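In the laboratory, one determines a bound structure by crystallizing the protein with its ligand and collecting diffraction data. In a computational setting the workflow is compressed into a single prediction: the sequence and the ligand go in, and a structural description comes out. We illustrate the idea with 2-acetamido-2-deoxy-beta-D-glucopyranose.
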Amino acid sequence: MDIKPSLLSSLVVLLFLLFAHSSNATNKIVEVNKICNATLNPSFCSKILNSKPGGTNRADLITLAKYTIGVVRSNVTSTIRLIKSLIRNSTNSDAKDHYQLCLKHFDYEEGALGEVVYAEKMLKAKDYQGVNVAASGVMATVEGCVSGDSPSDPVFPDHSSLPKYAEYVEQVADIICVICNYLTGIYK
Ligand SMILES: *[C@@H]1O[C@H](CO)[C@@H](O)[C@H](O)[C@H]1NC(C)=O
Ligand SMILES: *[C@@H]1O[C@H](CO)[C@@H](O)[C@H](O)[C@H]1NC(C)=O
Ligand SMILES: *[C@@H]1O[C@H](CO)[C@@H](O)[C@H](O)[C@H]1NC(C)=O
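The predicted complex, in structure-token form:
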């Protein structure tokens, strides 16, 4: 009577391993240099991926995607904190309007934070095309804060650290897009 549960649990472990193996068919190991070579800023990308605790030596694509999404989430969150502080401190209404628009571009409801949460969800669902769409969404919405929503919008002369934060977020999101292109097989 005692044997049965342990047999059962061995079977569960075996099935899990089989399942994990088959569903990881796309989860290859790709050299960090090769991934970063395909990004907009390869040296920035190497810095980010090589700062992964435990190192990136032979890390698989899904592990790198998970790590990079975590980085972008933390950067989006600190950017939101910065924007709220900039709104509080603004003394002129143009600046206040600009930062309020940027807050929309970064927050959960319409902005980057919502896209990041969606990327996490898609990664869990192994929908790597979905992760790519979400990461591209992060880049687009952040660019809308920096450059305005349409090309005819004048660019606000922002001398705060927000443009630097925004650029950082865009570059991390770009790394996620490249990792996804390897996961979906667009890049080989
Ligand atoms: C980096 O990209 C260039 C051209 O885009 C290519 O010639 C080179 O082989 C690539 N290097 C690596 C390490 O993939
Ligand atoms: C982005 O997030 C990473 C990881 O939490 C952190 O080390 C880095 O300082 C952040 N950068 C910015 C500009 O927020
Ligand atoms: C807003 O003002 C406070 C108080 O002067 C200051 O500590 C903080 O750094 C300012 N925030 C920004 C983003 O400049």
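Helices lie at 3-23, 32-37, 42-50, 61-89, 93-106, 112-124, 128-147, 162-183. Keep in mind that any predicted model is a hypothesis to be tested, not a measurement.
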